[in-house]
Design brief:
Blueprint: H1 3-33, H2 40-46, H3 51-57, H4 61-66, H5 79-83, H6 88-98, H7 110-119, H8 121-145, H9 153-179, H10 190-212
Helix pairs in contact: 8-9, 9-10
DNA-binding region: 39-58
Keywords: DNA-binding, Transcription, Transcription regulation
InterPro entries: DNA-bd_HTH_TetR-type_CS, Homeodomain-like_sf, HTH-type_TetR-like_transc_reg, HTH_TetR
Length: 221
């Protein structure tokens, strides 16, 4: 491995460690004091970073609790999706898998995350805002790929429906971890976690394809 590659890998590990520390402390402080019971400065101090560093990673406290970093918010231009020769459903699945968050973003205690999400209305509201922005971004990407106007009804419908499949898959994935969290001695690797999520996503897309597949008329006998 070259010195530059090694250095880049070390920077990425430090970045991920800082990201994880901010998320973990944001969730801990929210569980202990409520979302309005601490400041960004107190969160940054708990994670041993500066206020400026915090805003390099997250836009708001809500985003830190959700684990949604500043670089995650816009879908922006995804050339691999736009240029893919695969059918649209396959390209969407590939897009969702490439953008699947790492295991660390769910944290080690999924139960706490789920409790916070349902007890703090600001968190649920922020998640809904993020999801709506992603739906619009995805519709624009689909429209670009299919050479359609950004507001084309097909692009909007495809973004909404596939986005719902994604959220259903994420909810199923998180619920499984909530019910059967990995032990510290056998914690899932990121590769295994992605494979687990891919299986769930593939199954839900298959259900959708079955729903819309042409079917023979049901016998009335």
């Amino acid at each position: 491995m070259s010195e530059s590659a090694s250095s880049q890998g070390a920077r990425e590990r430090r970045r991920q460690a800082t990201h994880t520390a901010l998320v973990d402390h944001a969730r801990r402080l929210t569980a202990e004091h409520g979302l309005s019971g601490f400041t960004v400065e107190e969160l940054a101090e708990a994670a041993d970073v500066s206020r400026r560093t915090f805003f390099n990673y997250f836009q708001t406290k809500e985003d830190a609790v959700l684990g949604v970093g500043s670089e995650d918010l816009p879908l922006a231009t995804d050339s691999a999706f736009v240029d893919s020769a695969d059918p649209l459903p396959a390209a969407l699945k590939d897009l969702f898998l490439r953008r699947f968050p790492s295991h660390q973003r769910f944290g080690h205690d999924v139960a706490i995350f789920m409790e916070l999400l349902h007890s703090e209305t600001a968190l649920m509201r922020r998640m809904m805002q993020i999801n709506e922005q992603r739906r619009r971004d995805l519709a624009a990407l689909i429209a670009r790929r299919e050479s359609l106007p950004d507001t084309d009804p097909f692009a909007l419908a495809a973004a909404g429906f596939s986005g719902h499949l994604l959220m259903t898959s994420l909810h199923e994935f998180v619920s499984e971890e909530h019910a059967d969290p990995p032990s510290s001695s056998s914690e899932l690797t990121e590769e295994a976690t992605r494979a687990r999520f891919a299986h769930i996503l593939e199954a839900n897309f298959a259900h959708a394809e079955r729903l819309f597949a042409p079917a023979s008329p049901r016998s009335k006998d």
